Amino acid sequence: GAGVSQTPSNKVTEKGKYVELRCDPISGHTALYWYRQSLGQGPEFLIYFQGTGAADDSGLPNDRFFAVRPEGSVSTLKIQRTERGDSAVYLCASSPSGTYTEAFFGQGTRLTVV
Amino acid sequence: RKEVEQDPGPFNVPEGATVAFNCTYSNSASQSFFWYRQDCRKEPKLLMSVYSSGNEDGRFTAQLNRASQYISLLIRDSKLSDSATYLCVVTDSWGKLQFGAGTQVVVTP
Asked: Is the dihedral of CA A94, A74, A109, A81 positive or negative?
């Protein structure tokens, strides 16, 4: 399909391990967002890309979290030394330009750290 | 203080009734405003944009009050299928989307 694709859909990892979460945005969308959502909460902003560069990474909780978008399309969210508190649904969204346009979400990656 | 605040609810609404709820935002420089809908264990989807003059989309009416920094959503003639969490979304001048925690609506037969 032509929607936002996130892989894997589910990821179980052991505490202390490294994980990568992938997002394929809608083709041509320049803006890409990462959020994480815990049960009963709204999506919490992590990072926002315009093209290849991070326009705003103020939501990354600490230096264990890092995201890249090297060619301005696919993005990878990387989490080092995972902790149980990192367990959440990680949502990716893309939009044509950012400010005034609708953002389309992927179905998310459910990360469980055991 | 959170940048976007919503009453979490739940709002229990009889089928056919009207329900309304608000969202407040703290950044007076916010550029654009949206309501998203999220069903249980699903991703958020755009319900409607919110314009300064207010706007309707079928049974849904959204209003923006920039002076008081709040937006509202009203649902008329509620359907069972309207049961969901409604997320208020505000963007800044850079396009960053900030979400509220959501308002849960439960429509009962």
From this structure: negative
3 state DSSP class of B64: strand
Helix, strand, coil distribution of chain A in percent, nearest 5: 5, 50, 50
Tens-place pLDDT, residues B23-74: 999 999 888 999 999 999 999 999 999 988 889 999 999 999 999 999 999 9
Please identify among residues 19-78 of chain A the ones whose CB lies closer than 8 Å to any CB of chain B: 31, 33, 35, 40-45, 48, 50, 55-56
Rounded CA separation B36/B39 (Å): 10
- What is the CB neighbour count within 10 angstroms for residue B108? 11
- Strand pairing class (B97-99; B11-14): unpaired
DSSP-H helix ranges across B1-109 = none
Q: How many DSSP H helices and E strands does chain B contain?
A: 0, 11
